Amino acid sequence: MFPARPGVDKKAALLAQAKAERLARSSQKIEQDAARSSQKKIEQDAALQGSSATRIQKFWRRVQARRAINNQQRADWDALASSLPSTPTLGLVRNLQLTFLLLRFYDPIACPMDSKRLATLCRLLQSKTIIAAEENSHSTTAAEGSASTIAASSPLLSSISEAAASPKADQKPTMQVPFQMILLHARYANLAATAIQRLLQLCIKAIIGNQIDPSSKPSSDVATSTIATTGKTTNSAPSPKSSTSTFGGQEYNLYLSGPELRFLMAFVDVNTYRLPESVNSAIRTQMSDRGTALIVRILNSGQFYKDVRVGIVPRVEVLIQLQERAKRTSLVPAEASKQKALSLWITAIWRCCLLLQSVDKDVTEKAAASSLRGKQHKDNLINLHSDESTAVGIARYVLTIPLFAACLDDLCLQLASQSNALKETLDAILDLRHQQYMLSAMTLNDTLMLLGNITQLYRANMTKNTDAVNAGLKSQLVEVVVILLTHCQKYASPTQTTEFCRYHPFFSWTSASQKNQQLSAAQAKMLTQQLEFLWSKEFALGTFRALLDLSLPPASAGFTASTDSASTAKRDILPSTSSHAGIAVGKSSDPQRALLSIEVQQACLFYMTLMKSFDAQKTKILVTLMYLPSFLTRLWRFMATLGPKGGMYIYLEAAAGSGKKGLDQEPLIAILQIFCECCARFFITIDDDDMYEQQKTWELSELVFMSGFLNQFCFFILSQQQDPDPKDVSRTTNAATGAAAAELPPSSPLPPIFYHARQVLLQLYERDCRRSFCPQNHWLLMHPTKSVFQSPLQLLASLKISSKDRSSGSNNSSGSSNNGPTMSSMVTKGSGGLFSFSSSKSPPQYATPKEFISKVGQKDRTALQILETMPHVIPFTARLEIFRDFIKEEKTQRSQSLALVRPDLHQSVMVRVRRGYILEDGYNSLGQLSASGWKNTIRVKFVNKVGADEAGIDQGGPFKEFMESFLEAGFSPNLNLFTTSTASMNMLYPSPTSQYTHPSTGLDLLRLFGKMLGKAMYEGLLVEVKFANFFLSKILGRTVFLDEMRSYDEQVYQNLMFVKKYDGDVEDLGLTFSLDEEVFGTHRTIELIGGGKDVAVTKDNRINYIFKVSDYRLNRQIQDQSKAFIEGFRSVIPRHWISMFSPQELHRVMAGEDVDFDVQDLRAHTEYQNGYFDQHPVIRNLWTVLNDFTSEEKRAFLKFVTSCSKPPLGGFKHLYPPFAIRLVMDPTTSDSAQDGIGAPAPRQFGSGAPRIGNSQHQRASTSNSTSSSSGGSGFGSRLRSAFNNGNNNSNNSQSNRPSASSSSVSTSSSSGPSAFALTVDEHGTPAALGVVKSFFGGVIGNVGSSESAGKKARLPTSSTCFNLLKLPPFSSKSVLKEKLRYAIMSNTGFELS
């Protein structure tokens, strides 16, 4: 296709050939370079291999040479040792030569026989050397130092030689001296000191056994030969005593005794280097100083205590195991011998530690006493006060060994006492120079073990020391315990978190950084036994000895609350500062009293730290303290003397934040906290006889003072809480619901002392509620009748708190004004708010109960905290109003929210109930109703005997009748869901045997009764029920104890008190920790504790027995029944709604006041129907008759018309429906027409809608013609209203008829038919004419106006569903009184109609 191009093709071929050749040359060059590199690498590897082999060969030759040298040295040493005669006559220098020779080749791992050689040398050096006065025939070896040379060069040896007995004429003079005398040799002293130091280090390693390598298997001949008494090596001689034991999963051949141990004990003892008094004093001093310097070199090596710890730990573990086994069974001879040997080994090591500690003390004293010899000491002592020496080393490495002190025998404890080891250790821990190092180096368990060991040492030394010494040691021990446990608390927590995730038997949970800190069960048990001494009675008596020896008068002051005037209130609330309130004020500044307060504070801080650290032992600690003789009495009286003013002012000032002081800055707050924690337990145990009649612990005046102080103290703490952020408060307020009406906005947590003080305060308050011992209104800060809130800030004024001191707090809280003025702003600005006062010069201002209730509604933090934590300071009437406001608020919110979101939930619930089966039908219909459904309207339709529905529409009355009948049947003991305490008290609580009579439905029935009772309280209805006081406390969520047993069973309570106060031998009563019961003919035994039927009740455990019985009777026996009832109750009435009440007050809320009702109050809140009005003659006669009734008749009347004999709390304005009196005209005419037409439509029961307006407005809105009792009730106006309303009713009767589906009653005038509707009887007589006749004393119908005719009139009847009295117009007061008394006392109900 294309023409051929020869030139071009040839050129291309040449280029391709040239390129191929170039590539070939490049490839050839690369291959050549690679070959050269490979060859070079091969040559380098060969050279390296030759060099490595050469080095290895050289190293191996050196090893072999060194090994050969060592073997030759061993052979020389053996030859020299074997050439010794039976009585050594070598010189001191020859012994020194043997020592250095051994040090050069000593390696027990490479050659186990070295251990034998070390034992031989130690034995040789401990024997005295016979030294000739001049060189003898044995001094021919290379070690010719010879005795004569040493004697000639040493003036000491010369003096000793002269002092020796004169030898015979044909003998050369000789003498025997120990090896340590070589330290005086002018030439070899330093060499000898070095040799002895290194030899002692080898002995330490041999003794503790840490020379054994766990990875190797050393020969069994290690430390198994000894030197015979002749000094020659004999393989068949007894070996140093050892024991094979397992520690940490590894077998150890534990060294127990031998020459090494004796050599160590001898050469660390300063007495070894002391010469007789016959020797020159300068020489004695020189020898002593050089020996001391040698020991100090051992100390300053920094390894002695570390090495000792390594050896002690496995031996202590083995010894503990043997001791535990010995407690269970007898030890075999080998084990007993092993136990004894271990104990002796520990004794020897402990003695060495104490000897070294004594050297430290002696050298320090000598260095301070003599400056001439101080230079020499400074040259030899590197740092005696380093972190690795003496007492610090003992505390850090020895006393932190688990259970070390438990292994010390009497000899060890005696040595520790003689050397003041405990005091030196405590001083070292308290010394700030060492404290930080020790705490940072010790783990959590190390700290615990140190605490346990020093505690056991102190306990052992108590009998060996004087009282003065024990007192000093106790004071130091208390401080050390606080320091150590405070250190432990940094790494421990009572709850498990991500940081604290490791379980610990003492601290629950520890930090993850505390690894490998597990304690065995045996170690934990024995450590607990060591530490128990700290909270024993013996130790506590010594700790508070000075306090218990004080004699103080009763501390009482005028804390009685009085409300006559501000001045009297201030005088009564402030505690007295006169001398009769405890110790005189002048004596409080006594230096001895100040020292005593510091001592008591330190002791209280000590026990607080113990309880915080060992939560499981808190009960034991508190029981020990509170049962010390007169401890609580003297502690309270002593606190009243503290401070310049006395009378507990220092604590009130601290709680009030006076000046710069506060609870955190008050140093003596620990005393008050211990007192409160002990009292919280103590008040549980004392009975009324101890408290009121005998007044064993405190006089009643002291208890009044105590309660008043605690009342003020707790309030001041509340007043000092920081206000929450305004945004948080706004969010809390906007999100609040009725059920959360009493919840507190976020705020800073209260200090722990508040809860302890409050617990004691509430216990005193509950005691006073059951049996009063305080003056009237003592607990109140708001007067119930004068409507004046007595703010405790008046006490702040007396403490001179100025606005300047509180200015910072005002600035910080100035922005939180959305919910009213804050506490700080009210205090500083004097705004006249809840608790307001402006300065120390201005008088305190007051707030009314109405303002306090308003603050609660505004979610004021201080007001809500008072209501939650200290409700007793607010009058009961105010708290009752707050409770009703909670219900009203929830009803309002439910009606607003449910109507929009869930209209179906706002509808009523219809229940059909047969008259003869109220309990069964109620359970089937309402048993599964939800908590929200119980707060809706519940209507009841009764079914008669023939199965037909009864006529009428439930507007509240039928349900009230059903509820009364249902609760009456359920609370009846015949049903066995509830039972009564005793025949005399007749108080109800759940039956413990209900599970047998109602096995399947018992708990559901109890839960239903709880809901029904809650519904009654929710609707403001009173129930005639009287629960036992302990069960009311359970409903309130409080724990019940012995003091509530009286409300359970008086006889059981008296029996327990008999056991408590029995003076004889309690075991003679034959009681055990078990109870015998007979349930429906079946006998059973209940054990109060594990194996309780075999545990006898003794004098020591009878208090525990009493509490176990009380706990079983009050709690465990009816636990399930109480839980079910309370669950049902709280589903309707939340706990925080009623927590403001005491048990007695809760009973009043449920059942009303147990007093006669006020006739005038009832008259002021009565509505009239069908022609009656307040000034009607029959009505005037009725009120007169009621005033003349007896108490029993008044209660019968109230029960007749309302079904409850008690008036409603707060007066009849709270009675719903309102009390009404209806005129009935004809005795032959039924009331059905009047019931349906003449009566106003009653307010719907159970409606979720709130009640609008007060009762006066509601009565006025029922009918335009119904007049109030205060005015406008003339006869003419009543007559005109009767005719006018009759005309209006005829025109609008259909439109005004109430609807059955209505959920609430309107407050307009058209809410229902008029009370004066114009009706006609069977004779055609209008109702208005009946009003006229009744006003003039006549009786409508075929009855005349005579007295006899009046007596024939019908009896009064009632309709308790509507709180309605149907009263005929009796002609005279006497007839009315006779008829009414007969009706209310007959107890025959509706059949009187």
Characterize the structure shown.
The termini are far apart. With 1393 residues, the chain is mainly α. The chain has 57 helices and 19 strands. The C terminus is likely disordered. It is elongated and about 145 Å long. Strand 3 and strand 4 form a beta hairpin.
Task: Note the main attributes of this structure.
1393 residues, mainly alpha, four-stranded mixed β-sheet, three-stranded antiparallel β-sheet, 6% strand, disordered C terminus
Give a nutshell description of this structure.
With 1393 residues, the chain is mostly helical.
* Total number of helices: 57
From the helix content, strand content and strand pairing, which structural class follows? Answer: mainly alpha
Instruction: Provide mean pLDDT, rounded.
Output: 73
* Poorly predicted spans: 132-173, 210-239, 247-251, 371-387, 558-588, 726-746, 786-846, 1227-1325, 1336-1346, 1388-1393
Give a count of the beta strands, DSSP E runs of length 2 or more: 19
Helix content: 40-55%
Instruction: Please state the overall shape, judged from the principal axes of the Cα atoms.
Output: elongated
Q: Quaternary arrangement of the chains shown?
A: single chain
Radius of gyration: 49 Å
Q: Largest beta sheet: what is the strand line-up?
A: 16-17-19-18
- Report the sheet-strand fraction: 5-15%
Taking the alpha carbons of the first and last residues, their distance comes to 140 Å
Largest sheet: 4 strands, mixed
